[in-house]
Amino acid sequence: MSVTIAQPFEPIQGISGDLTFRSDQIDLIRNVAAGRDTSFSRIQALELLQVSNFSDKVCDFQLLLENGQESSEIRHLAARGLYKVNTPEAVNILIENSQVQDERILTTVMKGLGRIGSENALEAIARVRDRAPGVAAFQAEFAAALISQRFGLSGNDLRVPDNSEYLQPTNDTNRSFHVTRPSEHEAQVCLQSLADQPFGIQYSGNNLYNIKCGRNNWMLVLNQEFANLDAVQILQSRKAFPGVIAAKYEETGLYSTAFLLFTSPTDQPNILNLLVHRSTGEQVFGGTAQVEGSKANFSIRSISRPGGFPVNVEGSFEGGNLNFETTLSGTQAQERRHPARVIQSLS
Questions:
Q1: Cβ(83)–Cβ(65) below 8 Å
Q2: 8 Å CB contact between 313 and 173
Q3: What's the pLDDT score for residue 171?
Q4: Phi/psi at 89 (nearest 5 deg)?
Q5: Which of 9, 120, 219, 295 could disulfide-pair with 318, CB 3.0 to 4.6 Å?
Q6: How far apart are CA 86 and CA 103, in angstroms?
Q7: Are the C-beta atoms of residues 27 and 39 closer than 8 Å to each other?
Q8: 83: part of which helix (H) or strand (E)?
Q9: How far apart are CA 238 and CA 230, in angstroms?
Q10: In whole angstroms, what is the distance from residue 91 CA to residue 113 CA?
């Protein structure tokens, strides 16, 4: 989630989303981030360093991540800073630090590699998946799946739910989502918010859908790769990562990635799997799509989980555009019929 930082001084100007500081301000930020100065919070300094115009900030984050004398919190934030810098150099540093033993730091490294890494990160991720405990192992497993979905690679497949795992509609499944096209301003706010949360895909500036249900306000944003006339044909040919759903925080007016949308072909001709996971990996919705020429008719339902609500969404996808026909949600949480894997959500 994007945050508003109470800055100890004002930047000169903004360039390409980065904040531009004077050289003396950069020196102060770096010194505080490194623990050499206590003028203000190190956590605040690390946030400022990440959004600053300083060209060598990757090196500063690397030094902190690789310093075994630093606290787990600082090293975790350094790994997160590298992910947000989102450069090939940052990815290589995360790969090199995939042997770290601290579970929290390792979890952050795996999350970063899943979101911005490519096929060359899969070997390191696999080693972590095989040796690490708990949350780090789960995040390694999801990281491998996320990379494989993004690049259409074989292996590391996401689990497809059995029909018995879906929540069944109830009498209270009668609250409708309201799906509209956002204003140009709201679309830009969303895209600017997501720029700070890279997932290795380019978002379409024209294919956004505002979804409102009760107090919840979301934005569905399509991957630019699937905003074209041949989108359905591509989805039929390989695994894919067609887009995300971002949640709006009314306190700030900004958006944060909440759900990731995945598809994969099935053994049945013209049938696609649809899977929706939280950004931290937990599977929450699923369904199928029936392909008819250049059009895919889809149906999505909730997967049974603690606190889950019945959801039924039906519609079609054609020429890079979505059309929603049924958008229903229940108002009462359901009990899960079988144990759930507990997933730790990390900031």
A1: no
A2: no
A3: 66
A4: -60, -45
A5: 295
A6: 22
A7: no
A8: helix 72-85
A9: 13
A10: 7
Q: How far apart are CA 229 and CA 313, in angstroms?
A: 23
pLDDT at 214: 82
Other CB atoms within a 10 A radius of the CB of residue 228 amount to: 15
Query: How many alpha carbons lie under 13 Å from residue 110 in its C-beta half-sphere?
Result: 35
Contacts of 340 (CB under 8 A, 6+ apart): 305, 306
CA dihedral 91→97→100→105, nearest 10 degrees, is -40
Helices 57-65 and 88-96, packing angle to 10 deg: 10
pTM score: 0.89
pLDDT in tens, 212-237: 988 889 999 999 999 999 999 999 99
Of 141, 94, 85, 98, residue with least CA distance to 117? 94
Please, what are the averages of pLDDT over each run of 10 residues along the chain (347 residues)?
53 52 93 96 95 94 97 98 96 97 97 98 97 95 98 96 83 78 96 95 96 92 94 96 96 96 95 97 96 96 82 93 90 50 40
What pLDDT, on the 0 to 100 scale, is given for residue 329? 82
Q: Which residues contact 146 (CB under 8 A, 6 or more apart)?
A: 114, 115, 199, 241, 260
Cβ proximity of 139 and 117 under 8 Å: no
H-only helix segments in the chain: 23-34, 42-51, 57-65, 72-85, 88-96, 103-116, 122-131, 134-151, 184-194, 231-237
pLDDT at 330: 75
